[in-house]
Design goal:
mainly alpha
């Protein structure tokens, strides 16, 4: 493992430990913490989905004028992306 990989792994481990300690010592109840985390993950999912849709649309705009060069390629890309 390279030095950079070790640093990144240590950083991620530190973030995870910090999050767990933060939840354990939080003044909110477990139910409030779960609701907050659920909301945060839902927002993250929604924003990720929006970004993926934007990226797919930009891809279509780039591929569309060139679709004659590669027949069926845009269908393959859309099938792969599930769009």
């Amino acid at each position: 493992m390279s030095n950079q990989s070790k640093i990144i792994a240590a950083l991620l481990a530190g973030v995870a430990v910090g999050a767990v300690v933060g939840l354990l010592f939080s003044p909110e109840s477990g139910e409030e913490n779960r609701e907050g985390l659920t909301g945060w993950f839902k927002d993250l999912y929604d924003s990720s989905k929006e970004k993926a849709e934007e990226l797919a649309e930009k891809g279509r705009q780039v591929v569309s004028p060139r679709s004659g060069m590669f027949p069926g390629a845009s269908d393959d890309v859309e099938k792969t992306l599930g769009v």
